[in-house]
Design the sequence.
């Protein structure tokens, strides 16, 4: 085979792989579960303090946030009104959308609402966060483009029961109602609030406004339903291929984002003198803000050798991780070390949400075999639990009861 023929074969094979399947279904599901759980846990934990963080009682008040957003053109639904009721509605919707995305109910719609909730709260008070909020901010936008509900979701269970591959799917009344409600809410925001949903300005990309993004997603959902129901032939194949390309592209961007995160963090650390002499970890362990367990921090800081090993190990692991992607075994070993590193950060430095967010991003590199093994084990555990919980009336008797030969109960 000539080189040009081999190149054409490779290109055709790659094209087929990208357009014929949504790659990494389990990895994307883990990313969905991880980030929605992290954000949900944060919102629930800060529920008593929500008004001081993002609401009317925040030191960064509504007028200051409005002036900042006028300058940076960020998106935040909380800027549509300074009403306390509106703030409570947005915060509650952020919690509900996170919970529903976690369980995978209507993931296409919930991923959009999840993104709106994340951007609205984080852009309202930009000084709230520990670094993990930046990662959640980015991933919330990437998840919109992924098919993160293919497995481990209520959507997947509904599709398996209803026959997702049928030429004529059943009418989706719930989806239609949800689509109509979200469209009505978007129209209200466009006409009766200062939402600034422009078509070509103040959006996530130059020349692309948030009005175009949100209305475009709303119309795409409608078009997908229409094609599935009334045009199951070539139009459905084309739209399905485009959705798979978008999913695979977003998954690639998530992987690149994680690599960039570790590469930039590692090379930035190398420039610091404290990281060069192996003492960088010693200092945050003696800060009250980063010492939830002072006795544990004292134990770690008391050993100079341990501090040096952890300091140098952090730099080595972060710098080396992008290069280990060339070798599967090295990548898997490095992935374990990175996750252990962030578990240590969560415990020693008291940054649980930052660590959860980074671990959720790392999960995009988890081996498929490991995820399948975990899926099988959890499935067996679920089946055993379901079997033990089955109770049939009339078949259960107390240990002190006796049954006579004719079937009557003797006490």
Sequence:
């Amino acid at each position: 085979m000539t080189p040009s023929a081999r190149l054409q074969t490779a290109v055709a094979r790659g094209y087929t792989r990208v357009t014929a399947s949504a790659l990494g279904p389990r990895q994307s599901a883990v990313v969905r579960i991880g980030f929605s759980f992290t954000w949900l846990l944060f919102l629930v934990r800060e529920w008593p303090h929500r008004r001081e963080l993002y609401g009317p009682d925040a030191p960064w008040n509504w007028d200051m946030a409005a002036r900042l957003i006028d300058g940076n053109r960020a998106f935040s639904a909380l800027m549509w009104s300074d009403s306390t009721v509106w703030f409570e509605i947005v915060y509650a919707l952020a919690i509900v959308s996170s919970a529903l995305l976690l369980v995978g109910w209507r993931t296409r719609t919930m991923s959009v609402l999840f993104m709106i909730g994340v951007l609205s709260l984080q852009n309202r008070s930009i000084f709230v966060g520990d670094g993990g909020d930046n990662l959640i901010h980015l991933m919330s936008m990437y998840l919109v483009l992924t098919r993160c509900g293919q497995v481990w979701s209520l959507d997947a269970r509904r599709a398996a029961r209803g026959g997702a591959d049928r030429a004529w799917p059943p009418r989706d009344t719930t989806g239609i109602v949800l689509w109509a409600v979200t469209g009505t809410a978007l129209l209200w925001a466009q006409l009766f609030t200062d939402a600034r949903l422009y078509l070509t300005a103040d959006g996530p990309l130059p020349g692309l406004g948030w009005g175009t993004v949100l209305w475009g997603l709303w119309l795409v959902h409608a078009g997908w339903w229409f094609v599935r129901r009334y045009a199951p032939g070539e139009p459905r194949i084309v739209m399905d291929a485009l959705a798979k390309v978008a999913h695979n592209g977003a998954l690639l961007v998530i992987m690149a984002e994680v690599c960039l995160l570790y590469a930039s963090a590692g090379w930035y650390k190398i420039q610091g003198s404290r990281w060069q002499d192996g003492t960088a970890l010693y200092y945050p362990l003696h800060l009250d803000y980063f010492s939830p367990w002072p006795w544990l921090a004292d134990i770690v800081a008391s050993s100079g050798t341990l501090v040096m090993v952890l300091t140098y190990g952090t730099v080595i692991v972060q710098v080396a991780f992008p290069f280990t992607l060339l070798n599967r075994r090295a990548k898997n070993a490095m992935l374990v070390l990175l996750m252990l590193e962030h578990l240590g950060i969560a415990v020693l430095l008291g940054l649980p949400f930052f660590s959860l967010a980074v671990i959720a991003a790392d999960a995009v590199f988890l081996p498929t075999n490991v995820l399948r093994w975990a899926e099988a084990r959890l499935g067996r555990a679920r089946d055993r639990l379901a079997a033990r919980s089955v109770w049939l009336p009339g078949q259960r008797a107390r240990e002190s009861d006796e049954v006579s030969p004719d079937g009557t109960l003797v006490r």
User: Anything to note?
Assistant: The radius of gyration is 26 Å. Residues 394-411 have pLDDT under 50 and may be disordered. Residues 41 and 82 are 25 Å apart (CA to CA). The first strand starts at residue 402 and ends at 403.
